[in-house]
Amino acid sequence: MLAFILRRALQSIGVMIAVGIIAFTMFRFAGDPVNQMVAIDTTPAQRAEVRASLGLDDPVPVQFARYFINAVQFKFGVSYQFRQPVSALLKERMPATLELATCATVIAMVFGILMGIYSALRKDSFFAKVLQAVSLIGISLPTFLIGILLIYLFAVTLGWLPSFGRGDVVKFGWWTTGLLTISGLKALIMPSVTLGLFQMTLIMRLVRAEMLEVLRTDYIRFARARGLTTRAIHFGHALKNTLVPVITVAGLQFGSVIAFAIITETVFQWPGMGLLFVQAVQNVDIPIMAAYLLVVSLIFVTINLIVDILYTIVDPRLRATINRPA
Amino acid sequence: MSVPVLSVRDLRVEFASRRGVLRAIDGVSFDIAKGEVLGVVGESGAGKSVTGLAAIGLIDPPGRIAGGEILLSGLRIDNLPAEEMRRIRGKRIAMIFQDPLTSLNPLYRIGDQLVETIRTHLNMNETQARKRAVDLLAEVGIPAPDKRIDAYPHEFSGGMRQRVVIALAIAAEPELIIADEPTTALDVSVQAQIIALIKRLGRDHGTAVMLVTHDMGVIAETSDRVAVMYSGRIAEIGPVRDVVQNPLHPYAKGLMGAIPTLTGDASQRLVQIPGSMPRLSAIPQGCAFNPRCSFAFDRCRVERPEPIAVGAQQVACHLYDPRHSHDHAHAESVA
Q1: Which of A262, B93, B256, B284 could be joined to A274 by an S-S link, Cβ 3.0–4.6 Å?
Q2: Inter-chain contact B90–A217, Cβ cutoff 8 Å?
Q3: CA angle A290, A292, A295 (to 5 degrees)
Q4: CATH topology of domain B34-56+76-223
Q5: For chain A, how many structural domains are there in total?
Q6: Is A61 on the interface with B (CB under 8 A)?
Q7: Could you give the ipTM of this predicted complex?
Q8: Structural domain boundaries enclosing A289
Q9: Taking the model in full, what pTM does it have?
Q10: Looking at residue A140, which CATH number applies to its domain?
């Protein structure tokens, strides 16, 4: 088991090095950073000075090694537009994004799984059919459109919820949270619903399909032949087997929730990493773009690792394959 | 004679399909006494498994029991509410399925599955149930049961898994075990062990067994009586010795003739039954076997034969109807 975790961790490091190379090459191919930083009337001598101070004269491998060593310590350089260290900017923005993504994922998981179970167990009921139809809308409507519709309905027409921002936040060290204030919670509702809707419908449809599949298996039939209660069969035997593939999808979806957050954060002017990234793209602020790429990859890779470990905890057959020497 | 453990009376099972209602079981009647093993043979689709599923109340929509009665020790069970039927399943009637590899939930230890089943039916606490689980595993011949109880299904071989399945089936000492092709998915050497185990359990506990299989060898070895099914009906039923050595129904004759023997004349060809069993949507009028029967006459194509007692056997064939001397002559020539 430990060997398996170590092996997977090593693979993850490999992935991160590959992403690091891509992030680094952005600096070399997306324009000359010196031009971004200096004013139009800067003399060539001054430009050369800036270039030397940034270490851009060094050979490429040296630059990469320096970038890599810094990145490992979460030093991503200085933002061209804000003239601040990127790590400080990310640190400031990260709590907002993580809170939003976590909230969206929790909403998606809880409601997605519940609705999935319901529509599998009562697959012929009217409500289950309505859910199936409505879930198609959730899957096919673009996120920004849902966000705008929600803003129109709840912020503009009804005036119940704020249309932008995070509301009041409470500080814990460098971490800020909107979960402890009324206005923070109110501000969180619409963005997290918008962000989570797609995942929710996806999880619902996945759970439904998996559960219907599991309910047809021999071990469920044998469980029924043993006279177990319907409750024990559905929520003990069937649900656990249903959730094995759902764990993978849900884990990977958390990563894409953070990626999707770019759009949601733009629509709701949510002060998170996604919004920072969009501004960085508009201003060709490469250090931020590169750092965002690295941070999101790190989150993806970490979740993947956790999912793999969870998988082996849930499914004993995988444990057997892992413990068997390859 | 005491009340039979299972008594099936004129059972009819229908499946609603797009092309209309298909009758999978049409007027099946039989009894199984305490401690008796009834073998049920027939080709795939003859209705053997459906009969077993009907007895334990696991016919799922679009299927339904359309007529007849099923009695368990004299109590009618085919019309019980779902919850009452659930209490009977596993406690008084158990069922074993064909594939032991897929019958156990892969995510739970076998001990958990045993304890869960035991505690569903018997009033025991966790410790008592676990002790009983170990005893059950020992009884079905699992070595080192106190260690193996914490193993997962994938850690067992096919034969061992079928033993676990049997342990689960007998957890609450049922009166009746329905075994649906319990050995089909197993190696031949393991088959014999499982058959011996089922036989021993039936003898030790006085459990009635309905053994569904298409393997005549298994039937001959284990059963007291045998029912030959064809196209949703019982063609012939009787003591296993009589039916195997002196089959009456032309289909049963064909079935027995198709079994190779080691002692017989090697030059003798195995007898084949021409054609195949009709689909449920196209069962011919009269006797369902008439298109394949070399003794069929006019009446067979019009009137469906009802069971006729001949010695200890019952056969659904017009050839044995004593009212028709002409037909009787046929019967003589057949015998």
Answers
A1: A262
A2: no
A3: 110
A4: Rossmann fold (3.40.50)
A5: 1
A6: no
A7: 0.84
A8: 86-323
A9: 0.79
A10: 1.10.3720.10
